[in-house]
Amino acid sequence: MTLRLPSADGTLYAYEPKSAAGPTVHAGGPLTSRTVFSAAHVVADPYADVSADDPAAVDWDATLAFRRHLWRQGLGVAEAMDTAQRGMGLDWPGAAELIRRSAAEARAVGGRIAAGAGTDQLAAGTLAEIRAAYEEQLALVEDAGAQAILMASRALAATARGPEDYFTLYGHLLRQAREPVILHWLGPMFDPALTGYWGAADLDAATETFLQVVAAHPDKVDGIKISLLDADREIAVRRRLPAGVRCYTGDDFHYPELIAGDEEGFSHALLGIFDPLAPLAARAVRVLDTGDVRGFREVLDPTVELSRHLFQRPTRFYKTGVVFLAWLAGHQEHFAMVGGHQSSRSLPHLARAYELADGIGLFPDPERAAHRMRALLDVYGVPR
Question: What is the mean pLDDT of the chain?
Fold first, then answer.
């Protein structure tokens, strides 16, 4: 089969899909050299009669099946994060149900799970209301049996008067957390409403507040996740963490070198790109478990071009590419998203994502992926 794919300039070009099958599930013991979470997407119910303004209609069976796929690889699941369209189609009641169901499934199969606690039941509020919202979500996550990830709060970004408000609020939450949490700093490229988080638009000043929060409560912080797409800043922060506090990279542009590390340390991982890359990511880390850094990079480095493409600006719409690849790979039977976000990327963008994924051998069944790509091209009226 030859596909005619649209390029960014609107012209069509011929593409010959690969014929070799890509990576399949490789069950095995847990990963040992790094702790690796994949943030996971949700599968929409395509038959639900809902609009973009309605609560998300989720296909729970397919959503949980995808999480079992991640656990079989040896990866942990980071649940109800921005990859699951949190705040972009999935509201707090939907996220709460997702956390409960996924945590129960994790217990059933012995999978590792962490889940996001934020304040998205509020559009805005006072500091007291924001604290109460965080407390509600933190309690639900912990009661469900998941490790808590304290997510950045849009409401807090809008309300806080400066660094002291962050220091006080996070200190209160950390003191009452039952188990060590992961602190998440999500940059404005992922969510423009988080501009100026930690009380300053200047990243150096924000970094100091962030580190002060960690230093004041090292016993309650398992690790930090930085999603700023800035490898140098992550390395600098990583080197200043208290002993025993991990750095989980959230950098979908530089993850191979950050996970591989240097003479002074390395990052663990909590990444949205590991949703589509799960088999390759697991294979790479198993190579790293043997001490073979070069072999690790040989597996993972070729995936970076695809990741950079999916996460190109506007970065927050990367979820469309993630779900698109899940459909092509056969993890779901449709390309529909909660909130209608399957339309958030252009056809040329999706075509390039397909080509890059096919080029690195990502699809377990390349013929099925090609036929599904052909079906999408037909919908858009691309001539055969």
Answer: 95
